[in-house]
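Standup, Tuesday
Yesterday: got the pipeline producing structure tokens again.
Today: sanity-check two examples.
Blockers: none.

Example 1:
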Amino acid sequence: MDSFVAPERCITCSDEGLPMRVVALPGNDGIAICRDEAGADQEVAVDLIEAITVGDEILVHAGVAIAMACTPDYGDRHERTTA
């Protein structure tokens, strides 16, 4: 069975999903503090992602987490939780 691969660009507006790392989950309100590759932190809505944890790498579009990221240097969530 083929694995689902999240698109790199939004199919509606062509913006990219930017990889960010979850650095804090301050409450139970569906908001996480995430850090981009440049080291800048921002609030991101994470309601669409199940079981998100600090350290997860996600793809963010317009301030909303749209998928778990899979990068060569970080691996995917399945590999990290079963290794």
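Example 2:
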Amino acid sequence: MEHMHGGRLTEMAQKNNLDPDEIIDFSANINFLGPPSLLLEAIKSNINKIENYPEINSKSLKNDIAKKHFLDPEQVTVANGAAEMIYQLTKILKPKKVMVIDPTFSEYELAAESAAAAVEHFSLSKKADFKLDLEKLKISLNKDIDLLFICNPNNPTAHLLKTAELESLIQKAVKEEIIVVIDEAFIDFLTDPDKYSTIKLLDSYNNLVILKSMTKLFAIPGLRLGYALTNKSLSLELETKRDPWSVNYFSQLAGEIIFSNQQEIKDYVKLSQEKIAAERKYLYQKLKKFKKLKVYQPTTNYIFIDISETNYNSAELKQELSKAAILIRNCDSYYNLQDNYIRVAVKNRKANKILIEKLKIILE
């Protein structure tokens, strides 16, 4: 199983003889507003700091994150993107068996395999619109499973679980001695993320790990920044058994600005949530008008689509759109999905209109 993700602009440009800057990238779920100007200005004005080492273990940023979430700094591990923590967790915990809920983010399975763990797949049903049957999952949990990964909202289906639903699952996991990792990479795109986040449960459950990403909402995938929240003992292991400089200076600087409580950042987050909600509604309604597409209800900044009633499989439709310099996510690399599913990010109105017009030409 290889690392298959969106945002492969260079590959598409080379294949189709395009300039990467011409491509409208619907394959990567990144905030279309771009990074806050405050971040860009800070990086530019501190470019000379590139000759210095970053702060070991990002201690200043760790304190800022802890303050934001009303936690102890010892519960926070800052990372080079949330993906670093996925691999660090399997490295430290050394699970014999890991459960993943498919289809979902592929790095959970790859991280498990990197630690020589067996992977048990809990497959979501197409008949149930890929919604998680919580009771069935709880019945499936047993002491043979050491680690459970849950993506909330799920990628690529966008299905979302409420905090109370997740707590009932965590409680069952406690009885079975299972560590639950909840990946909240896309939760902050919601207008009411606190309604779904499990951060409020951290101090009640020692078996809970929460992963957060700054990459998506703040549009800084080239920098890489995320963090893990968990109990102090596990957090210490995650911290001490890795490269102390895994997070570079500019990522640390960006993080310190993001968590600085400045009004400009608060305004940026609010504007992002409002703009994405509006464009999500627009794009969803326009896509629903295509009779041959089954468009799943979106919750965050991407939309999951079944194209099996069209004359194209996902690879073919991706290639047709690439001729118009549009890149979508072909979902055939996701476990438990065939070659008739795609995912598109929510972009700005101009880009969304271009996608709809090109789909009309191809599908109608």
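Quick observation on example 2: The radius of gyration is 20 Å. The longest helix spans residues 263-288.
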